[in-house]
Amino acid sequence: MRLIGGQKVKKAKAKSRLRKLRRLLAESLEDRNMLAAISWDGGGGDLRWSNSLNWSSDRLPTASDDVSIDAGNEAIEIRSGTHSVRSIDLNSDLQIENARLFTEGFAIAPGSTLVVEGANSEFVANAATAIDGANFVASSNGMLTVGSVTTVSNTFGDMYWRATGAGSVLSFPDLKTINNGTGRNWDTFLESFQGGKLDLGAVTEIIDPNSGDLRQRSVQVKAEGVGSEVDLSSLQNFVDYAGYATSDSDGEYSRLHATLGGHIKLSELSIVRGVYFPVDSTGTIDLSTITSLSHGLVEAGRSVNLSALESGYSTDFVTSGPDIDLSNLHDADHAVFTIDGRDLNLDSVESIDGASFYVSGGVSIEIPSVTTVSNTYGDVYWRVTGSGSVLSFPNLTSVNNGTGRNWDAFLESLQGGKLDLGRVTEIIDPNSGDLRQRSVQVKAEGVGSEVDLSSLQNFVDYAGYATSDSDGEYSRLHATQGGLVNLGALSTVRGVYFPVDALGTIDLSTITSLSHGLVEAGRSVDLSALESGYSTDFVTSGPDIDLSNLRDADHAVFTIDGRDLNLDSVESIDGASFYVSGGVSIEIPSVTT
Predict the structure, then answer these.
(1) 48 domain-assigned
(2) pLDDT tens, residue by residue, 46-92
(3) Do the domain assignments include residue 390?
(4) How many domains does the chain have?
(5) pLDDT at 116 over 90
(6) Which residues make Cβ contacts (< 8 Å) with residue 137, sequence separation at least 6?
(7) Long-range pairs, 129-132, Cβ under 8 A, ≥24
């Protein structure tokens, strides 16, 4: 028996009210029909509503009867006629095909399914009381209406509300709130197919709650097929508290999806969290009223109007050509932008802490309102790929890595792309938080690739030390395979690795202080302005490293193979090490103690 305990209590209360009602009726001076309770006993040996032997009094229910049905896992069938009862307490599946059933009171147990199928088929419950966790299907011109209920919760597992076929309507005219359940992998499906209509026009909020087992839960809304519609015209809030990337085995986005001619009717939606919008070129959905979208995903298969959006916190925006109107977006912290072949307007974006950008397809993206950035998320990527692709921050002056263990910031241009950071004066991995395994990685790889850091003065990684240490990780500046890291003002460097590649271009001639770093010379390296190389490794197997102005080499390590280096100006080598080989002669004349 699937009827839960709470509903048995409701049933007992209903019987008590019924006894009082009978007493009042008996005392009335008017001649009234007495109300009766009738239950399913299956005595007729089949599942037909129309078989009187299946009922407790061996008669068919009438408009004055309170009906209760518990047929286990069997589905009761109504195949013809028009039927009216006073109330139904349904603890089984019920299928109405080419028939009608009308009732005032209605309760259905969690996990039970009510199906209305076929032309001239209809079910109407004007005063329903309990439909939590129940499934409803209207198909093949069937019409199903459940009134009075204002709040529904999924209390069973997977809950389906589905309208299939032209002329089929599933309606909940008084419903305001839909809540998903609290069990792992519980999903609520609100769907219209093949021209059906799911009428949720009074619903103001859909919630996957922040309670229970949050893993692998979702609310899935879909309109699929020409003429299909899910009416959510009053929906204001759609919130899935654990709706995050589907690549995470414990995460599952909720979804709003109109496809193949389907339409999801929205006109008031404002607050969204944890929802995936696969915006299909064949469906219709209007997102222009959304002001806050967090922890979500927007994939643009056609132009998407998000012109009211102000906050896109931790949301992925993906386009491979269609426009996404983000003209009013201010907060993009933790967001991810994957932009291929489309120039997006991000002029209003003011905050991108922890955000990632993947730009390709020859587009130029400019973010003029951002002046300071901090990595507040984990690994962040600013990656520009392909000739003609540009990501520009014309007013950005400071880039800060985050404070969590193993957090890295990647600033990259590949295959001819350009990352324009020409106003940045400092890049800092801060001296706070968990310093282990953190870094800022700057790379220009490929002919025509450029990272413009022409105003950079300070590049400091406070915990950037030898990569051979499991807790240590250098930050890096690397130009390779024809790439260019454009430096013109860099002076103070700490904790940075320079793998100076013979195939890349990077000018280190302005550096005056380099500490806790590493220089590997794959070609001649101009460090002629360097005065202090405290605790830095200098490695060459032939190419020259111009250290002609170096004075402080305390704690430095020199690995010199096959190259005579000029160390004439070095005055202090306290704690320094020298590994000399390859038949070279190294002289350090200025050191006296």
Answers:
(1) no
(2) 999 999 999 999 999 999 999 999 999 999 999 999 999 999 999 99
(3) no
(4) 1
(5) yes
(6) 113, 114, 115, 116, 117, 144, 160, 161, 162, 163, 164, 170
(7) 129/10, 129/105, 130/7, 130/10, 131/106, 131/107, 132/156
Q: What is the pLDDT of residues 330-354, one digit of tens each?
A: 999 999 999 999 999 999 999 999 9
Asked if pLDDT for residue 12 goes beyond 60, the answer is: no
Amino acid at 556: A
* Cα 107 off chain centre by: 36
Q: Which of 516, 519, 397 is nearest to 508 (CA)?
A: 519
Report DSSP state, residue 54: G
> Within a 10 A sphere around the Cβ of 146, how many other Cβ atoms?
25
Whether 542 is in a domain gets the answer yes
Residues in the chain: 593
Cα separation of 191 and 219, whole Å?
A: 11
- Residue 346, amino acid: L
**CA dihedral angle for residue 172, residue 175, residue 181, residue 185, rounded to 10 degrees:** 40
Task: Evaluate if pTM is beyond 0.70.
Answer: yes
Return d(Cα 552, Cα 554) in angstroms, integer. 6
pLDDT, one tens digit per residue, over 457-467 is 999 999 887 55
16 — pLDDT class (breaks 50, 70, 90): very low
Identify the residue whose tokens are 């792992």: 184
* Structural domain for 550, as ranges: 508-593
Specify the pLDDT at position 11: 33
Residue 113 in domain: no
**219: which 2 tokens?**
């609310």
Asked if residue 363 has pLDDT above 80, the reply is: yes
Q: Any residues with CB less than 8 A from the CB of 247 and at least 6 apart, and which?
A: none
**Nearest alpha-carbon partner for 397 in 358, 455, 451:** 455
